[in-house]
Amino acid sequence: MSHQQDERFMARALQLAKMGRYTTDPNPRVGCVLVRKGVIISEGWHVKAGFGHAEVVALENTPDAQGATAYVTLEPCSHHGKTPPCCDALIKAGIARVVVAMQDPNPLVSGRGLEALKASGIEVCCGVLQEDAQSLNRGFIKRMIHHRPFIRSKLAMSLDGRTAMASGESQWITSDQARADVHQLRSESSAILTGVNTVLADDPSLNARVDWDVVQPIRIILDSNLKMPLTAKMANLEGRSIILTVSTDEQKHQALKSVGFEVYNLPAKNARLDLQAVMQFLSQQQINELLVEAGSVLNGSLLMEDLVDEWLIYMAPCVLGDQGRGLFSLPGLKAMTDKINLTLRDVRQFGPDLKLTLS
User: Fold this and answer.
1) Which of the residues 16, 94, 289, 336 has the least number of beta carbons within 10 Å of its own beta carbon?
2) Residues lower than pLDDT 70 in the chain
3) pLDDT digits over 216-258, tens only?
4) Closest Cα to residue 215, out of 243, 242, 191?
5) pTM of the model
6) What is the C-alpha radius of gyration for the chain, rounded to an integer number of angstroms?
7) Among the three residues 97, 112, 137, which one is the final residue of a domain in this structure?
8) How far apart are CA 301 and CA 306, in angstroms?
């Protein structure tokens, strides 16, 4: 098989993997294509945690995979989880060759699946369309290697860089088209994080309102002093709502738990939640991709600690005036030499608004 053909079939496997991008958490998105004599004989993708892995689904979709080549977007697993090892299934089916886009990023298992396949006499090729595969599962990779989620922060601003009027009124700066794109972002995210002041101001739902099947993101609220109202809308919505705090007020803990919140105490830093500890906790909760929708104080802290992997800024062609609220609270910046530089990665238009992607 030529390298060009390998890339063509791997591209199809990646297309299949993307079909699970709203539902596979906390697992990675994986696709598989089985090919014999240059013709696809079967396909599969991982749909949801606990369901069959992509390789097993593809094998189940054909009566005979003997001598075929399997194209898989992630190294086949070699360990028992909720499902048996995919390596064993490929070996048992008589697969002759396995082409893999990337190794499993989990340092405890990385490379073991490939070695198991080689040991059984299967020809193995790794690294085909690797960058595309890594981009598809950047949250899973980040969690496995760095023990924190891939973090994106979404902000909406006017032409003059304001996120709200001085009164706090902010609905709506951007257009329907931009807000629809935000709901797509939410649907792809494992969790959405905000601060309690945003909840007090807006009482947001922080859910993905889309017309396709989606696992609703976990809602994470940073609430150092437990100001969360018991009547908050999100307590009654589908999915988990988690409050992270440094408060040890047991009465408040129990009251919030009684209306549906999960409440966890985390380490403090300067009497507020330690953001590094927050991200480690979210990794332990198996959160791959975190979307931040917060105000200037939290975004300023995240920027100063260099915790955000990608900034998504929706800019509307309107002006809110110099009394409006800014994107970031950064009281430590005094001189031009203190400025924080970002790199513009992408610009797209949604209705009248621009979406800037920076890192």
Assistant:
1) 336
2) 1, 79-83, 169-170
3) 899 999 999 999 999 999 988 888 999 999 999 999 999 999 9
4) 191
5) 0.90
6) 23
7) 137
8) 9
